[in-house]
């Protein structure tokens, strides 16, 4: 009867599982067995439990769920016989964990078994408790375990000691109760008890400072004596490993001594002799001996300064490093990393050997050695080490190139003595391992290139040469096409030749070949293709003679399967075709990218990577705390980046619409129906976190003139190096720094007779704003507005700032590799650049304090390029302080007289 | 805590014994075992290729053999936040995952002690012994390691409770 329900024997089950040819077959067998076990559990026959659990353990080991057997474990544990208990506890340890509710049920059984008369049962309970106990169980059962540490049988004592290590780790408050018991274990002779006692002490020392003090005072000498006894003991066959008595105990003792000696000169002093003895006397031709030596070296390096011992330790490591056994070399490299901290010179002496290890066929050794080398680099040896590493990069395994190139890049960035060297090394790395280089690395390279204006020509030529040879290295190609796009003219005309360069002749069509190659290659990814497309657009303006050919290439991309490419191709084509007049300014060279901004962004997005440039070229002006600056920059880039990418298509539509003179789409120019207006609001709202600082900047960026004057447009201003200036100059006068004489001075205003009636632009309970208008002579598009702010409240307004914005209708893209981490290439290569049909210029206000019932005036100048077609509209925001409290008012002005 | 898990895996990469001293879900275990086994076995494959090449060389240049040292791959692999110390005995791999600050050489010695202990009990232990006496292998391990720490290093002490039980049966 039984045999029918309990199915196969354990042995048979294992056989049938082994016989399975496929994973599916195995799953089938296991499913059937599990069903049998469940059925048998329901039968509730105590004789089958043992076998069921054994099967379950096997099934669990294979990685199948076995939760249904958990209750069986508990039943077995509760049964009286030792064999049942034993398998029950084993099942408990394997199938259950401390997080499961079921475990609570076992606490009582454990308590009973800890008090059992049979010491083997007690041993089982201790073992289980030591492996899986939870914090609650630890609290409940700690008194039992504490008592068992003094049990007569050493086998119980040692298990109780290890059980205690788990208890004190789970509940550190209980540590004090175990200090005395632990120190008594250190006097034992039985190796098992001794090794577990030492581990308990180690645990106590790491979690409780009092315990550490106690053991340091009372036990250091005893431990040293124990270690000496073991080191000098006669041959003990039971514990001997290759001539060393119990290396495990040696190692545990050394570990404990390390904790005791660390930070305490007296204790360190006491152990000097024995450490010297272990370091000199231990046999080093077998693994066991080396394990002890290794531990000893680690202890010597951790305890307080005993320089003679450290020399000894470094010598041992040197010997390890030249050992033929790879295991020994591995631990030597591991240890040398720690040794660098206190004796850089000694480690530097082994530099050549360590460099050899970087080239080892063994991946583990290589990895360790590479870590070590990156710690060894300093200003003096960086050139030599980098050369060695780059040389090796050429011949290393493919799978190692990623790690190696990442390390080289971080070394080069950190220690590069000059820009040309940095660029050279990075080009080499990209040429050899461009496939493996992370995005932020080549982004950083572009930033550096952009900042090294005297090297533009050199770099673009070097890149051109490199890309001809290594065209399969994706990131190299990207950097090259970016540079060709930006500096294509320097490439062709050999501008800025350095003495070290060989002159090369590159025709315009050669340069375009490279870009075309990148855009047409089937395995180029989206980013590369997109960058190539932008480069082509730029080249179409740089190389007018072959712009037809470039146009053809762009047109071909209209058929691209990538939607983004398709769209851009169409847009770019129309720029090339129909907007010749604005194209040169549109595709002007990028303004120098701000290294400091980039580094801040990079550090923010990649906290783990080593991203410090040697010296940021732009220093942050004083008076600006670092944190708000970061905020500003983040706002400045991320928010704005998000806007154009979501509505990019509209923008270009706008561009086309305006240029074709059709105003149907936006007739009436109702404010804010377009994404553009939202964007404007975004810009304005940037000021919110700290109005006092940002107000001026928002005003500035809105008043920046320039349909095609200057790329320092609104958005660019925000993340350009000028920003710190804006942030510091809270007064309105600061804007002149930015405008740099781009605009006519306010005195030029000609006040003609008021042909337009004045309006009340805004009125609230506290503030009234009146506008009076006058036309500039000779330019009907320009209107001078005098704003008068009248304080209607009895309080004085201080820090008064008026901001105004006009919606723009057309937007044009401005090209820039804003090195953001966005995947969308659009964000990588573009910055939005808004050309306003309305332009606004604000003169400084007459005062920034508005007394009660007083007034101040401010002049604005609005240029409406669609004069006669669309009427003016304006949004404004007024910020001021009343009794030290910030007040913000916003409004929209729609009631401008017609014809302005 | 020292030892985080102990695995025994055969040449085909099938787990034959797994003991964890920290909690991982079943899925995590499967994934971890898969990754580790792949990593270690791949290293070993390289090793075997190298050995074959070496033997081939030696057969032609016998004198050189004594001079040329066989440069064995090291027994440590870093994986996630573990260090895996592994060693191959015949068809079985013993893999021990440890913390970063553990003495790797000592763990290697521990693996050897484990194998010796099993040898002493089973008499030249093999994969099948462990499969068919899984619980016994676990009992042995229990006597040697508790909560990731070494309990006992004497083979006689480890085996005495187990032999006692065998007699009782």
What do these coordinates show?
Chain A has 900 residues and is α+β, with helices and mostly antiparallel strands. Helices cover 59% and strands 9% of the residues of chain A. Chain A has 40 helices and 12 strands. In chain A, a hairpin with a 2-residue loop joins strand 11 and strand 12 (885-893). Chain B is an alpha+beta fold and 169 residues long. Helices cover 54% and strands 22% of the residues of chain B. A 5-stranded antiparallel β-sheet of chain B has the order 2-1-5-4-3, with helices on both faces. In chain B, strands 6-7 form a two-stranded antiparallel ribbon. In chain B, helix 5 crosses helix 6 (155-168).
- N-to-C CA distance of chain A: 104 Å
Order of helices and strands of chain B: EEHHEEEHHHEEH
Major sheet of chain A: order of its strands? 3-4-5-10-9
Instruction: Tell the overall outline of chain B.
Output: globular
- How many beta-strand elements of chain B? 7
* Main sheet summary of chain A: 5 strands, antiparallel
What Rg of chain A is obtained from the alpha carbons, in whole angstroms?
39 Å
- Could you tell me the strand content of chain A as a percent range? 5-15%
Which key features would you list for this structure?
heterodimer; A: 900 residues; alpha+beta; five-stranded antiparallel beta sheet; three-stranded antiparallel beta sheet; 59% helix; elongated; disordered N terminus; B: 169 residues; two-stranded antiparallel ribbon; 6 helices; 54% helix; globular
Topology:
The complex is a heterodimer of chains A (900) and B (169).
Chain A: H1 2-6, H2 10-19, H3 23-43, H4 46-61, H5 70-78, H6 82-95, H7 102-114, H8 119-132, H9 135-148, H10 154-170, H11 175-185, H12 191-207, H13 209-232, E1 240-241, E2 244-245, H14 247-261, H15 265-281, H16 287-302, H17 307-321, H18 326-339, H19 344-348, H20 351-358, H21 363-376, H22 382-395, H23 398-415, H24 419-433, H25 439-451, H26 456-469, H27 474-493, H28 508-520, H29 526-542, H30 547-556, H31 563-578, H32 583-586, H33 595-605, H34 626-659, H35 675-686, H36 691-703, H37 714-719, H38 723-728, H39 735-739, E3 759-763, E4 767-775, E5 782-791, E6 797-805, E7 810-815, H40 825-829, E8 830-835, E9 838-842, E10 855-864, E11 874-882, E12 885-893
Antiparallel strand pairs in A: 1-2, 3-4, 4-5, 5-10, 6-11, 7-8, 9-10, 11-12
Helix pairs in contact in A: 2-3, 3-4, 4-6, 5-6, 5-7, 6-8, 7-8, 7-9, 8-10, 9-10, 10-11, 10-12, 11-12, 11-13, 12-13, 12-14, 13-14, 13-15, 14-16, 15-16, 15-17, 16-17, 16-18, 17-18, 18-21, 20-21, 21-23, 22-23, 22-24, 23-24, 24-25, 24-26, 25-27, 25-33, 26-27, 27-28, 27-29, 28-29, 29-30, 29-31, ...
Chain B: E1 3-10, E2 15-20, H1 26-60, H2 62-67, E3 76-79, E4 82-89, E5 92-98, H3 104-122, H4 127-132, H5 134-144, E6 145-146, E7 149-150, H6 155-168
Antiparallel strand pairs in B: 1-2, 1-5, 3-4, 4-5, 6-7
Helix pairs in contact in B: 5-6
């Amino acid at each position: 009867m039984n045999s029918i329900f309990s199915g196969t024997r354990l042995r048979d089950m294992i056989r049938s599982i082994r016989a399975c040819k496929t994973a599916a077959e195995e799953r089938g067998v296991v499913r059937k067995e599990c069903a049998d076990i469940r059925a048998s559990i329901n039968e509730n026959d105590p004789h089958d439990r043992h076998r069921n659990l054994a099967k379950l353990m096997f099934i669990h080991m294979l990685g199948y769920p076995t939760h249904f057997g958990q209750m069986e474990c508990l039943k077995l544990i509760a049964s009286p016989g030792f064999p049942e208990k034993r398998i029950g506890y084993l099942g408990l340890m394997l199938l259950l964990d401390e997080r499961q509710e079921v475990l609570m049920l076992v606490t009582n059984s454990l308590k009973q078994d800890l008090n059992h008369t049979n010491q083997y049962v007690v041993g089982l309970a201790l073992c289980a408790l030591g492996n899986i106990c939870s914090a609650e169980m630890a609290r409940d059962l700690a008194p039992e375990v504490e008592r068992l540490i003094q049990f007569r049988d050493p086998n119980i004592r040692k298990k109780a000691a290890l059980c205690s290590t788990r208890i004190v780790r789970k509940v550190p408050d209980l540590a004090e109760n175990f200090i005395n018991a632990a120190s008594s274990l250190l006097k034992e002779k039985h190796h098992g008890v001794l090794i577990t006692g030492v581990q308990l002490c180690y645990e106590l020392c790491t979690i409780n400072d009092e315990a550490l003090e106690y053991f340091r005072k009372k036990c250091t000498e005893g431990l040293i004596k124990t270690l000496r006894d073991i080191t000098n003991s006669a041959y003990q066959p039971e514990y001997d490993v290759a001539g060393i008595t119990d290396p495990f105990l040696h190692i545990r003792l050394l570990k404990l001594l390390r904790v005791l000696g660390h930070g305490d000169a007296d204790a360190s002093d006491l152990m000097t002799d024995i450490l010297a003895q272990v370091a000199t006397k231990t046999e080093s031709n077998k693994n066991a001996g080396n394990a002890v030596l290794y531990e000893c070296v680690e202890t010597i390096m951790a305890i307080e300064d005993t320089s003679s011992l450290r020399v000894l330790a470094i010598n041992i490591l040197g010997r390890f490093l030249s050992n033929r056994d790879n295991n020994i070399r591995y631990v030597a490299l591991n240890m040398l990393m720690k040794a660098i901290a206190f004796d850089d010179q000694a480690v530097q002496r082994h530099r050549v050997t360590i460099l050899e290890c970087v080239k080892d066929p063994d991946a583990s050794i290589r990895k360790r050695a590479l870590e070590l080398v990156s710690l060894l680099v300093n200003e003096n040896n960086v050139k030599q080490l980098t050369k060695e590493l780059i040389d090796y990069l050429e011949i290393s395994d493919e799978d190692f190139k990623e790690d190696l190139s990442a390390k080289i890049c971080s070394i080069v960035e950190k220690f590069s003595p000059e820009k040309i060297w940095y660029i050279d090394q990075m080009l080499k790395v990209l040429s050899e391992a461009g496939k493996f280089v992370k995005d932020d690395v080549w982004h950083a390279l572009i930033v550096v290139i952009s900042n090294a204006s005297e090297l533009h020509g050199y770099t673009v030529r070097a890149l051109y040469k490199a890309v001809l040879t290594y065209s399969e290295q994706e990131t190299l190609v990207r950097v090259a096409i970016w540079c060709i796009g930006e500096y294509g003219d320097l490439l062709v005309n050999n501008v800025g030749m350095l003495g070290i360069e060989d002159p090369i002749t590159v025709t315009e069509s050669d340069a375009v070949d490279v870009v075309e190659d990148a855009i047409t290659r089937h395995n180029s990814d989206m980013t590369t293709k997109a960058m190539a497309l932008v480069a082509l657009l730029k080249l179409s303006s740089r190389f007018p003679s072959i712009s037809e050919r470039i146009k053809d290439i762009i047109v071909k991309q209209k058929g691209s399967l990538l939607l983004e490419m398709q769209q851009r191709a169409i847009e770019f084509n129309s720029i090339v075709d129909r907007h010749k007049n604005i194209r040169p300014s549109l595709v002007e060279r990028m303004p120098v990218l701000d290294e400091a901004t980039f580094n801040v962004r990079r550090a923010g997005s990649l906290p783990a990577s080593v991203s410090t440039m040697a010296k940021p070229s732009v220093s942050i002006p004083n008076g600006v705390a670092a944190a708000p600056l970061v905020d500003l920059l983040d706002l400045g880039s991320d928010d704005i980046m998000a806007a154009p990418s979501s509505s990019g298509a509209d923008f270009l539509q706008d561009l086309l619409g305006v240029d074709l003179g059709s105003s149907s789409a936006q007739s009436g120019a109702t404010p804010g129906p377009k994404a553009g207006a939202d964007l404007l609001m975004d810009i304005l709202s940037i000021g919110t976190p700290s109005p006092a600082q940002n107000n001026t900047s928002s005003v500035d960026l809105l008043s920046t003139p320039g349909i095609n004057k200057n790329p320092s447009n609104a958005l660019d201003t925000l993340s350009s190096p000028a920003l710190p200036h804006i942030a510091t100059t809270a007064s309105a006068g600061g804007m002149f720094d930015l405008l740099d004489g781009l605009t006519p001075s306010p005195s030029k205003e000609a006040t003609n007779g008021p042909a337009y009636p004045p309006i009340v632009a805004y009125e609230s309970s506290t503030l009234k704003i009146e506008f009076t208008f006058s036309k500039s002579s000779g330019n009907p598009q320009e209107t001078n507005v005098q704003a008068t702010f009248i304080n209607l409240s009895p309080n004085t307004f201080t820090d008064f700032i008026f901001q105004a914005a006009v919606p723009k209708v057309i937007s044009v893209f401005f090209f820039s590799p804003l090195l953001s981490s966005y995947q969308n290439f659009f964000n990588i290569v573009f910055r939005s650049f808004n050309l306003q049909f309305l332009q606004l210029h604000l003169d400084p206000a007459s005062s920034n304090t508005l007394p009660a019932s007083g007034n101040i005036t401010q002049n604005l100048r609005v240029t409406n390029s669609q004069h006669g077609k669309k009427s003016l509209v304006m949004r404004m925001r007024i910020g001021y302080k009343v009794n030290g409290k910030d007040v913000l008012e916003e409004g929209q002005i729609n009631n401008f007289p017609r014809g302005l | 805590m020292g030892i985080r898990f102990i695995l025994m895996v055969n040449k085909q990469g099938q787990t034959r014994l797994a003991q964890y001293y920290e909690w991982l879900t079943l899925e995590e275990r499967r994934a971890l075992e898969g990754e580790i086994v792949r990593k270690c076995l791949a290293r070993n494959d390289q090793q075997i290729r190298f050995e074959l090449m070496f033997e081939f060389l030696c057969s032609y240049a016998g004198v050189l053999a004594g001079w040329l040292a066989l440069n064995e791959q090291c027994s440590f692999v870093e994986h996630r936040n573990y260090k895996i110390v592994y060693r191959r005995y015949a068809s079985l791999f013993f893999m021990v995952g440890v913390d970063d600050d553990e003495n790797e050489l000592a763990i290697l010695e521990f693996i050897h002690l484990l194998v010796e202990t099993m040898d002493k009990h089973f008499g030249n232990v093999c994969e099948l012994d462990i499969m068919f006496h899984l619980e016994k292998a676990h009992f042995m391990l229990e006597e040697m390691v508790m909560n990731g720490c070494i309990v006992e290093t004497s083979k006689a002490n480890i085996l005495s409770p187990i032999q006692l039980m065998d007699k009782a049966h």
